[in-house]
Write a structure and sequence with these properties.
This protein has 349 residues and is α+β, with helices and mostly antiparallel strands. The protein contains seven helices and 21 strands. It has helices at 12-23, 39-42, 61-79, 96-106, 145-158, 257-267, 314-331; strands at 2-8, 28-32, 46-47, 50-51, 56-57, 84-85, 89-92, 115-119, 134-137, 141-143, 162-164, 172-174, 179-181, 184-191, 210-219, 226-228, 232-237, 240-244, 275-285, 294-297, 304-308. The longest helix has 19 residues, at 61-79.
Length: 349
């Protein structure tokens, strides 16, 4: 089998990159062994233009977010599913100063596209704690990643573009103009392996894996937006919600006993309703030292590439950079220097 690209990994990175490649007319095969514990499968799938403790605009938000919802709408339509939930996100204020600051930002060109409303009084929901009001964000919500990835895998299988199995480097041979893996020959091998992405060819890239723990809960919550301030609460319907997430700098794949206490304590600051935990989940995010993705070609083996390192922002960042990287691979367009792994070539020796 001859293809343009062999992609390893069908998480959110491998999914959107392959989708962009096929739109440019490139042929590909994805090889993956589905893991229900992978970060893409476990993640809540939030996309949020205003993030962090100090509520600041996400890096590259002005470029990334305008294409985001149309992108997932296109994928949903092609796959016959509804994975996109553009619910909006409500972030309660913790001080009057925050309220005043966001009232001013609401009318500014820099922030107005992401703000639906700014409240100086409570949203008046019996279970939400927001005596100082809060900000309701637009271009914000979540993607049901498990539904999306499952449907896309089915689409790939039907077209003969998916191989179910573990990729082993011992079966890979590399020549100047192609790579060969078993019966597959490709012009380029692209690694989208998540936390395993530093293996073999890219072990010099400074990945800093971050563990995230979240909980599925039963709750009496009856709001249709995401509540988010230090912890998120995503209403899933039928009295079910998802609560998360922790950030721990270790890669031990188990739900720590302190995580449930931590999440409940943080939630109690903004939500008073009762919750009952039904499931505990844990995943390892492929975060990076400078919090920017790792995208580009190997410094010596030019037909080996990587598309990885999106951390907790894969849903929001991957579509934008998939468009960019696919044009680099097929049309030889340049890569944004902030994400190009050339910034770390000095470490490869």
């Amino acid at each position: 089998m001859m293809v343009d690209c062999l992609i390893v990994g069908q998480g959110i990175a491998g999914t959107v990159l392959s989708w962009e490649l096929q739109k440019l007319g490139a042929s590909f095969v994805i090889i993956d062994r589905e893991d229900p514990r992978s970060s893409s499968r476990v993640a809540a799938g939030l996309y949020n233009p205003i993030t962090g403790r100090n509520m600041v605009k996400t890096w590259k938000a002005d470029a990334i977010f305008p294409i985001l919802e149309p992108y997932y709408e296109e994928l949903d339509q092609a796959l016959g599913i509804s994975s996109l939930h553009n619910t909006g996100i409500y972030r309660p204020f913790f001080s009057n100063e925050e309220c005043n600051d966001w009232q001013a930002k609401w009318s500014s060109d820099e922030y107005s596209a992401f703000i639906k409303s700014v409240r100086g009084i409570s949203i008046d929901h019996e279970s939400i704690i927001d005596p100082l009001g809060g900000i309701m964000l637009r271009q914000a919500g979540y993607v049901d990643l498990d539904k999306l990835l499952t449907a896309y895998k089915k689409w790939l299988v039907a077209k003969g573009m998916y191989i179910d199995g573990l990729f082993t480097f011992d079966e890979l041979s590399i020549s100047e103009d192609r790579v060969t893996y078993r019966e597959i020959q490709a012009q380029c091998l692209i690694l989208c392996e998540g936390v395993n992405g530093g293996s073999r060819f890219f072990d010099w890239l400074p990945f800093t894996p971050v563990k995230g723990e979240l909980m599925d809960v039963e709750s009496s919550a009856e709001f249709d937006f995401i509540l988010n301030r230090g912890v998120f609460m995503v209403p899933l319907g039928n009295g079910k919600c998802r609560v998360g997430s922790t950030y721990r700098k270790n890669s031990e794949m188990y739900f720590e006993s302190a995580a449930e206490t931590e999440l409940k304590e943080k939630l109690s600051v903004i939500y008073t309703g009762e919750i009952g935990v039904t499931k505990r989940k844990v995943g390892i995010r492929p975060a990076t030292k400078d919090r920017k993705p790792f995208i580009g070609r190997h410094p010596e083996l030019r037909n080996i590439a990587i598309f990885n390192g999106f951390g907790s922002k894969g849903v929001s960042m991957a579509p934008y950079f998939a468009k960019e990287f696919s044009k680099h691979l097929i049309l030889n367009r340049p890569i944004d220097k902030e994400v190009d792994i050339q910034r770390y070539y000095s470490l490869s020796s």
